[in-house]
Amino acid sequence: MFGGSQPDARVASDGEPGSFVEGSILRIAMNNFLTYELAVVNPGANLNMIVGANGTGKSSIVCAICLGLAGKTALLGRGDKIGLFVKRGCSRGSIEIELYKNGRNVVINREISTENLSQWTLNGKSCSQKVVEEEVKALQIQVSNLCQFLPQEKVGEFAKMSRIELLEATEKSVGPPEMYTYHCELKNFRGRERELENTVNEKAAFLERAKQKNESNKLDMNRYYEKKRHLDMIELLEKKKPWVEFEAVRKEHESVKTEREEVKKRLSSLKQTHGPMLKKIQLINNQLEPIEAQIKTKTIDIKEAARKCKARRDQLDRKQKEIDDIKQALNLKHTEKVDEEKRIANTKTIIDDLQKELATVGEQPDVAPRIDAISVELRGHQEERARLDGEKSDIRREKDNMIAESKMFTRRLNDMNNMMKAKEDKLKFRHKDTFTAIQWLRQNRQLFSGNVHEPMLLVLNVKDPRFAKYVETHIAFNDLRGFLFEKREDMEAFMKEVRDKLKLRVNSILAPAVSCANKQPSRPIESLKRFGFYSYLREMFDAPTDVVSYLCYQYNVHDVPVGTAQTKAMINKVIEEPYLKLIYTAEERYVVKKSIYSNQVSTNNSQLRPSKFLTISVDAEEKGQVEQQIQNCERKIKDLDERLAGLRENFSTLEGRDNELRNEKKGLVEQKGKKRQLEQKIATKLGSLQQIEKNRVDLKKLEEDTKTKIGAVNAQKVAMMVEVMEQIKLRASLSMLKVHLTLQTLGLTAEKTHLEGSCKDRQAELRTLEDAFTRLDTKKNQLHERCKGLMRSAQTICNMGAAGTVPAELKVAFSTLPDTMEELDALLNEECSRAEGFTGIRENVVEEYNRREVEIQHLEKELGDQSEALNTYRMNMSEAKERWLNPLRTLICQINERFGEYFRSMQCVGEVDLHSEKEEEYDKYGIRIRVKFHNSTELHELTAHHQSGGERSVSTMLYLMALQELNRCPFRVVDEINQGMDPINERRVFNIVVRTACKETTSQYFFITPKLLQDLQYAEEMTVLCIHNGPQMLSPGDWDEKAFLRRIARRKKRTKPE
What is the DSSP code (8-state) at residue 500? Predict the structure, then answer.
């Protein structure tokens, strides 16, 4: 179809339009798309085998189908941006797909650019992606469904699908259009049914509680009404009580008012007869006032003279005391003189005694040499102790340094352990089964004979956090969380315990038999620095030798270079280097493929994502060194403690010897110094005696000085006595004047007393009447105010206005009650006692009872309505369940029948069933695939971990073939699923694919593979699309199919025998 260096896609046989299912692909045209510059593919109506070597462009056709039918880039597992699918060196590309449809085919065109923009046309008219998605959905095409569209990068994910996901994908792929809709409705119905059930149960429980509550409240309500009757009586008594009290006070007020008027009349009559006598008494009072003023003045002058006289007498007393002090001082000197004579006599006696003792002390032997020897030995011991103290101080300093160093290393080790704990926490959050398996391994490591390494997420230590994204991108996550084993028997034993018994989903890896840890790169990194490469991946991390060996063997980390932004800028030159298969730039990953036919280079690049796990790193070698340092520090500290103990023992021995020497020296010194001590004591006493005699008191001189001082003080006393006599004379004259004035006052006072005595009786009677009038007037006012207050209180209690009268009904009620306060109080106390007997009754019990009765009636109606609605809803659900579950079980039986038949043809066992823990939990329904490839094993569910890669591929392919015959989707795509199968299984699967996909009742099928086994059986309905590329290929415009067929015919004639 096309030549030059472009790829070639040829149609081996064309299906008739009538044999195509609606939605089948008739044509795929690609322009500047991945490896293609221009290519057109015309698939057949049945099985389409797309065959070609790696790198020729097979998967590019799968990408074109997905992206041309509005699929997401994430479905392909390649680049995450649409611009990455434009052919390198071009700015724009396009995909055009023609789909079969009764009446008129559907042509979808998508133009893409390196700016990640897309333009859509549908049947030649511009449209949005939404319109294309709706058209594709109407044709029952589901490129996001792994049961219909399984690209190469997603083959492994099929086995990872959960039962629920597999059921939904199967329903969408081969079930009737309404089956998945019914399933979704049932899940929603079940949720609504739970809500209705909960609502009905809650309302029924609430209704029962309300009834029980009201039944228990009936007695409270009766007691409430009984109490209310007593309270009403109390209220009525309280209302009458102020009226009775008001009437009593009003009567008292009238009585007091009458008595007050009578006292007022008597008081007025007495005041008229008492006036003249009071005026005469007032005249005498006026005469007495000036005389009493003069007496007061004279009294003040007399007091002043007495004060001055007393002051002079006080001065005389002080002078007398001064004379007494002088005499006392002289007497003290006399006493000191006597004591001085006694001390002199005693000192002389002591000196005589000491001289006698000195005379009795004989000659003693010379002890000085022994004292000197002891002193020398003590100095030696002191020097030794100083040396020991210095050595102890040095050891303590060294010990303190060791302790500080040990603490520093301990903190460093704790930091490393905390970092390891953070890595374990991340792993526990991301994959709990792996974390649980790690805990089991740490407890049971003795069960294994070889090395067993924990997951690489924990043992890999990236040297720089910036390198983490390269390592984490390069190594598959399943390997990062996998346990690596040195011996196969250890791995099998581990998987049997952890996976089969504990049911944990874990991965295991076997290290290469021959270590690859020391493999060298194909070229030294120095030769790549011109492209911006600075390191190989292996140099970016530390790990155990077995782990490094596996990574070199499986991922070639020793030969994958990492570059910078310079590498990205030079990428066109870099990918031309023949030895670079996989490289990293600063932010991207590049996979370089080279065609074995044309030597044309194609690349696939993807953006690096930030690291999630390996940014936290702990250097295992450094951690071991830190632990060794801590042990060394502890050992040195122990040695230093032992040395300190020895030094303390030596120090204690020296202390004991020093005490013995000091005691001996003390005795010798005392023996040597006794005579000298006596001589010193005698000399001291003689000095004291001389000092006492030198300071003797002169009594004669002191007596003369005393007489002189006393004479001076007596002269001052004489002058003071003269002043005292003058003040006494002045005081006597003033007293005579005061006596004269006092006599005048006595005459007037006697007359006043006579007058006052005459009117005393009348004054007492007047005061009594005034007091009585005041008291009665005050009481009248108080009673008046009290009447008004009691009236207001009574009116307020009876809800009357200021000028209102007692209501008629109250008057009738009051008439039945007592009219005295004593009787009212007695009856009130009785009613209060009865009311207080009703305790524990809430005020709102009646209101609650009535309100709850209304609620109960409302709840009974609601409960009946909702119970009826729930029963109706369950009937509808039962009908919906029959519409969904019966066809689904039939569908699963058909799939199981075909799946089991395919497996039996391969001498294996396979089953497909509908699995659900609870029949009514529709969101838990799922498809369970169980397979057995060996007679010695049991049926196991198909998972991403239990079966090998080839077994998963066979199971996936046969399940898809079981779906193929049920044929609801227009086409299926499977990309390179036969990779990893052994030749026997691959041949069996191929025969099943051909036999199934070439039936007239099946839909279109695309099977992509890079190679086929020899001597396979083919069918006429197959279309084989051979993908070629190379420098001698024709361009699509130069390809002439008819000329090609004529040449083939001529060649056959020439080779035909005569």
Answer: I
Q: What distance in Å separates the CA atoms of residue 875 and residue 864, rounded to the nearest whole number?
A: 17
Residue 500 burial (10 A CB sphere; 0-12, 13-18, 19+): exposed
State the DSSP string of 378-444: HHHHHHHHHHHHHHHHHHHHHHHHHHHHHHHHHHHHHHHHHHHHHHHHHHHHH-HHHHHHHHHHHHS
Please count the other Cβ atoms lying within 10 Å of the Cβ belonging to residue 130.
10
Burial class (CB within 10 angstroms; exposed 0-12, middle 13-18, buried 19+) of 1056: exposed
Q: Which pLDDT belongs to residue 562?
A: 93
Query: In angstroms, what is the C-alpha Rg of the chain?
Result: 63
- CA–CA distance from 989 to each of 174, 981, 1017, 1027, 1056 (Å)? 21, 9, 12, 22, 37
Percent of the chain's residues with pLDDT above 70: 79
Contacting residues for 409 by C-beta, under 8 A, at least 6 apart = 626, 629, 630, 633
Q: Tell me the backbone φ, ψ of residue 31, rounded to 5 degrees.
A: -130, 120
Give dist(CA 510, CA 484) in Å, integer: 6
Question: 815, 901, 868: which is closest to 244 by C-alpha?
Answer: 815
Total Cβ atoms within 10 A of residue 226: 14
Nearest to 452 by CA among 406, 499, 484: 484
DSSP 851-917: HHHHHHHHHHHHHHHHHHHHHHHHHHHHHHHHHHHHHHHHHHHHHHHHHHHHHHHTT-EEEEEEE-S
- Those residues whose C-beta lies under 8 Å from the C-beta of residue 190, and which sit 6 or more positions away, are 877, 920, 921, 922, 923
CB 980 within 8 A of CB 155: no
Instruction: Check residue 382 and give its pLDDT.
Output: 80
What's the whole-number mean pLDDT along residues 472-480? 88
Q: What is the pLDDT of residues 997-1031, one digit of tens each?
A: 787 777 788 888 887 777 788 888 888 888 877 66
> Rounded mean pLDDT of 648-652?
81
Q: What is the tens place of the pLDDT at every residue in 773-795?
A: 788 788 778 877 777 777 777 66
Is the dihedral angle over the CA atoms 311, 315, 320, 322 positive or is it negative?
positive
Q: What is the mean pLDDT of the chain?
A: 77
Per-residue CA distances from 524 to 533, 557, 593 (Å):
11, 14, 22
How many separate helices (H) and strands (E) can be counted in the chain?
A: 24, 27
